[in-house]
Structure formats: structure tokens, C-alpha cells
Amino acid sequence: MQVFKFGGASVRDAHGVRTVAGIIQQQNPNQLLVVVSAMGETTNALEQLIGAYLRRQDNTYDLWQRIRTQHEQVIQELAGEDQTAFGQVYDLFAEVESLLQREPDPYTKPDQIYDQLVSYGELLSTRIVNAYLNQSGLDSYWVDARRLIRTDASYREGKVDWKQTCEYITDSLAELLSTSVVITQGFIGSTGEGNTTTLGRDGSDYTAAIFAHCLEASGVTIWKDVPGVLNADPKWFDETVKIDQLTYQDAIELAYYGATVIHPKTIKPLQNKNIPLYVRSFLHPQNAGTVIGNFEQRLPIPSFIFKMNQTLISFHPKDFSFIAEENLSKIFGQFAEFGVKINLMQNTAISFSVAVDNRPDRLAGLLSRLQEEFRITYNEGLELITIRHYDDKTIERVLVNKKLLVEQKSRYTVQLVVKDLNTHGL
């Protein structure tokens, strides 16, 4: 069986939903599970809504109305005057509105409320896709991923209970997949108590890998708005090259360093069962794209990854002690407690430096805590450039009009923390 995953860009409007339906209809209707993300920028809009709801802002309902209106417009374009097949979408609208009318529970953590509300992006998009497929004559069955993917209570970053999850998936879907296309949600799961969780931002790729692993799929296809895995983001490079084949190792390295085409957690469940991952364009579905699998050949060309809006933080022990195990343990413990991920780290005898995403909501508390024992300096507004399979020429290319603050090299990878001296970018 096959697992398909469609991201938000592919279902951002009615035309996109029709394109997705066309791709699905060209496949064998049996033994196909389809994972769908929230439509377009819905997750960002829901995050705004959640912030307003938690702060009880006056514009909370207006923010929700915009989200609802966007989905209703898609329904109207797909269904015309007969919208009976989309009735369950309106049930979800009612659920959100009922929740927003209640005061936030002071005994419920904000991250738990976040997961409960943000999950409606995927629930709405999959209900719409499923209704359209059935209206178009394809036997499609909607499944709630929260009933199948079991996680712990780490809200916003749920850790999967693989044993229970695989039992639920195989017991629920093995027979169903023999007769219907199954439509389900990316990004979401639930705890043993039934509370909604999410798997981390942009986690729908990971969801597809979870289902594929548990069902022992023959392949996973991620449908994107790019022709495959490119050696650089087209936003930063005018000339990019599509990579036809990637090893699991190179793919996981690129994802780990921030390549946005694949979620970092996606590769491991697939590699463990030798399941190939295909990255293809939903704009040109006839093209082959990129295949990631158990190949021997390494990356044929350098690959570039840019992470913007980075903060470089340096810690210096106030007692002038060495940066050794005891100090590192304190620092890492606080980073874990505040949920701050480190993108690069480097230490000298008496200083430890890290590059992190600029998250003021988390960094303020972290730095306040660590200031008790460390003198802290930091620079904001930086870029982290990672080059996989680099050479001197590629390094020189990306350092044009840049001030180099940190350079870190290994055999295959170089990371550069830089300040852009040219406000217009590369």
C-alpha cells in the first residue's frame, strides 16, 4: 500500500483540492492512505486566534470569522448549491465557536489549549477533501488521526507511543484500506486520556511516516510545490538543481539542519523498514521528483540550507571556571526546560556559544534563569548557513557581503553564523 501526504500549499483553495483529487483518482483506489495538512496559511491564522483567545482580546471572534469564511469559500466553489456532503465541516465550525465562547480554563496549560484549537486546521481540510472525493464518485473514508496516533502529554511536541499507535493503526485500517481510500490528518494525535496533542510544527510529513511504518507501506509520497528536493531554497538561489536520489543519511542530515522540504523526524521510521520516500510536485504530477532510500551514492553536489532570524548567545561562567561537564549540564538542562532548540553549538575553555531561532517568548525566561551563574552576551538578526558536501568555492559564494561570526566544519558539513552586511540579502 501507498501513503500520500499533501501539504497546505496543495489544498490552499478549491483549485488545489481539485488537483489533489485528480492525483488521488489516478491511483489504485485501494491500499492508499492520504494525509492532508491544514489549508494554506490556516495554521498561522489559528495561532493568531489562539493568542487572542488566551488573552481574551476583543478581535478573537473576528479572527475566527476570517478562517471560517476562507473555508466556506472553498466549499462553495467545490460544491456549488448542493453543500449537503460538506455538513460535517459545519459541525466543526460549531465546535470551534462553542469553545471560543468559554473562558480559557485557568487550570489547563496554554500549550494544551493550543493543541486543541490548532488541530481544527487539519480536521477542516480533511473533511473538505473527503467530502469532495465522495461527491466526485470516489469511495473515500475519513479517519480521525487522534484515535490512532497515541502520544504522551508533551503538548506541541507529542512523543509517539509506537507500540500502541501501530496496534491502533493496523487494527483500524488494514481491512478498510482494501475497499476505500482513507483520508486522515497530519500533525495531530492524542494522549491516553483523549486530549489532543500535536507532533511539532510542520509535523504532517512525520505523520505520513508513522502510518507508513505501522502499515509497512511500499512507499510514501510527499506532494510539494517544488519539483523535488533541491540543493538550495529558490528564495535564496536563482539557480537550483533537483537531486534525483538521496540516501537516508543525507536526507536526515539536511532535514536536521533545517531543510524545509522534509520534517526532521520523517526519515527514521521509514529507514527502519526500508520504505522509500518520494518528493514530487503536485503542479507537475507526471514528473518523477526525488526518491530517498537505501542508496550508496552520496550527494552529487553541495546543498545549502539557510536559517534566518538567528540569535547567537555566548555563556561565560562568572567564576571563570572551565566550560566542562558540570556547566554544560546546567545549560542543557535549562534549554530543555524552556523548549529552546540549539541549531549550532561551539565552546572554548571559558565560553559556550549557541545559535538558536529567535523566540523571545522562550529566550527571555531561559536567559533570566542562566544569568544567575553566567555572564551572557548575544547578537540578534543573524543567519545560519549550512552547506552539506561543501568546498572552498561554495563557502566563498555564501560569504559575499557577510560578516562571519562563527565557522564550524566537519568532514561533510560546514555551518556559518553570519551577519548580513547587505540589507537586500544575497
TrEMBL record:
Associated pathway: Amino-acid biosynthesis; L-methionine biosynthesis via de novo pathway; L-homoserine from L-aspartate: step 1/3; Amino-acid biosynthesis; L-threonine biosynthesis; L-threonine from L-aspartate: step 1/5; Amino-acid biosynthesis; L-lysine biosynthesis via DAP pathway; (S)-tetrahydrodipicolinate from L-aspartate: step 1/4
Annotated organism of origin: Larkinella arboricola
Protein name: Aspartokinase
Gene Ontology CC entries for this record: cytosol
Enzyme class: transferase
Superkingdom per UniProt: Bacteria
Alphabetical list of SUPFAM superfamilies matching this protein: ACT-like (SSF55021), Carbamate kinase-like (SSF53633)
Short name of any one Pfam family annotated for the protein: AA_kinase
E.C. number: 2.7.2.4
Lineage: Bacteria, Pseudomonadati, Bacteroidota, Cytophagia, Cytophagales
